[in-house]
Queue: 3 jobs
Job 1
Amino acid sequence: MPDIPVVTPTIKTFCTTREAATMLGVSVGTVQLWVESGLLNAWKTAGGHRRVMRDSVLGLLHKESGLGASQAAVPAPPVLAAPDEQRPRRLGVLVVEDDPVLLRLYEATIKKWPMAPELTLAPNGLTALLKLGSYSPDLLITDLNMSQLDGFEMLRVIRSTPSLDATTIVVVSGLDAAMIASRGGVPPGIEVLPKPIPFERLKAIAMSLVNERRLERRGA
């Protein structure tokens, strides 16, 4: 009896953006955001279609399910109220800051704001982009000079993502105007504030968004 050849199945080393989105449980737009930021490794075919490295997708799945100690303490993004609910939702605020002392200061201060916003913290730009894959905050407050992925690159990616167009962005940085300009500046429409953190100005911006978007006011 002749030997039957053993056929080893070929495992694809790449996948489409839609396949990657299914594996990660996010939208195709989110996959594109993560590709632009470097969270996922990908390339384009001759026809202009993105192909995502499967190992990169699996690595991101592992990262999301097993965050390091510095990220594990970061609160999960708040679940926003559905548009058809009668009760107004609370203001969503995402703070991105790699100095743990300042991050704790943000947390302690913003939690005392009268409108009681839903606060999410991110210790770096990469973690922020992971959160932004499933969460569109009303207000994003970010530093610029950060490790892993600095604020300049993070803002470039965010401003190229249509699903985040409604997010108001404020930069709080120790860099002066000349230093910011020398590194390419920030996208138009983003207010840049100096450190130490100007909490009163940030609270005024937050209150303006609460009024403009008719959000829950709590004790405001």
Job 2
Amino acid sequence: MIREALGKHYIGMNKEFRFRGEETGRLENLSDGVFALAITLLLISTSAPVNFDQIKKFVWELLPFCACIVLIVLIWHEHFVFFYRYGFRNPAIIVLNTLFLIIVLFYVYPLKFLCKFLLFLVMGRILNEQFLLIEISQMLSGGDTANLMIIYGMGAASIFVVLMLMYRYALKKSHLLQLSRIERFDTQTSMISNLLMAAVPGLSVMLTIIFRSSPWVGQISGFTYFLYTPIMLIFHARTSKKRKKLLDAY
């Protein structure tokens, strides 16, 4: 399975971490099935083409489909790393994992709708493709922009909040897990990283509510997501320096 293949090659993981969940259980298998279902929902939500115009539209829809797949796989990988690190299968993690999977399934349709709208809007204006511009005019009216950004932002923030809570739980159980100093640092880093990942869509939702009546609400809430790049680059640069110092001290 893909979990075992990734684990053997340490993709996206630190080799200094002693992995306690190398043997996958039914909880991880159920989670993988839900992620597979989420990807399936992305595909079947696109109707089969019956004429050439719909073939053109279907080809264009491959772009938002691929973007959604990338985002979902990134979320899946964060979930995979957690279970591979700690191997939890107790009631508290089952509850958090169930909540996480429910949010992922809810997140699929707003994610695809937003990706499709943004990509069609950008490519339609760049290439002057009229059918793309007609499509987006039918997808969303000006008054619905704020509602869309609120729904999407709440879904995105909720996913990372639950992941943060899972890492927080692991940190609280550090003595039970016998985490080393570097393992505790990595756990805390992952917890804060997911909190920052949740903070950006949370800020977007807040700004959307504040500027709801503004004609620029879409731009304000959308451009908030560009904060991800500087925030995460600065955070990872600082944590990498601290981690290196910890390793040098061993």
Job 3
Amino acid sequence: MYCPRCGAANQADQRFCFNCGTRIDQVAVVPQAPSSAGDITQPMTIVPTATYSPPSARIIPNSPLAIVSLVFGILAWVLILPLVGALVAVVCGHLARGEVRRANGSVGGADLAMAGLILGYSQLALMGVGLCALLGFLIVIV
């Protein structure tokens, strides 16, 4: 069976064209009148009885908490909000990952939340190392 849309040859039991996805199981085959009296092969016209449009890609919205986590994680690293930004990024990142996990695919943004978590935790770790170094320096001096 040939696809009425792209002309690709398909198996007789296929419901959709393997090439373009057009539904081909519900097509009517209408023979045309022969062009001459001695013509043995009758050309056929395939007329689709149903139209099929392939499903469009579904857009999944991102969790607002994931976006907040990423934004505050970035703000923590550009030294605008080092401590507050890191804390907000960590808290919102964990909340966003929980929201995405509970939504079962209807909400996205797990990767944004993970990026916010990484930025937030690394900023907190760097601040902890800096605080330990500062305390060590102050103990040695005093």
